[in-house]
Amino acid sequence: MTNVQWWLMKSEPNVYSIDDLRNEGTTLWDGIRNYQARNFMREMQIGDQVFFYHSNCKPPGITGLMEVIETNLIDPTQFDNKSNYFDQKSKKENPRWDCAKLKYVRKFSKFLSLKEISQIFDESELILIRKGNRLSIMPIMSNIALQLLKTLDNS
After folding, report:
1. In angstroms, rounded to a whole number, what is the distance separating the alpha carbons of residues 93 and 75?
2. How many domains does the chain fold into?
C-alpha cells in the first residue's frame, strides 16, 4: 500500500450519520457539489482514512472513522431529476461529479467537538477551523491526523 492519506468528510447527522454508516457497513459518498471538495475526493486512494464529522448540529465535531474502498466513481445523483443533487448541466458522456465508496471503521467513544479541536490546532494546521470554511471534504496532514486519533483514543 502507498502512503495512507487522511481526510475529513462532513455530513449532517439528520441526513446521514455515523450510526447510519455503521448500520449499512458501506456507503457511496455522493451529492458533493463543490468543485474544490470534488477535486479533493479525486485525490483519494483506496485505503485512505477518513474522519467522519457531524456538521450543522450542536455541537459539530468528529464522531467516527471510515476507510476509502473505491474511488473515481461517477455520482449517479447528478443524473436523477428527483434527487436534490440533480445537475441538469451534467451529461452522462461528460459527468461533472464524482463520488467515492467508504466503509465503516469505527465510532469513537469520545465525540471531539469543533470547539475542542480549535483549542488543540490553529487554522494553519487544519482547514476545518478556518473562518468561513464550508468545505465538506478536506485533507488532513498525517501528523495532525495522528494527534486527532490520539486525542480521540485517550478519552
Report:
1. 13
2. 1
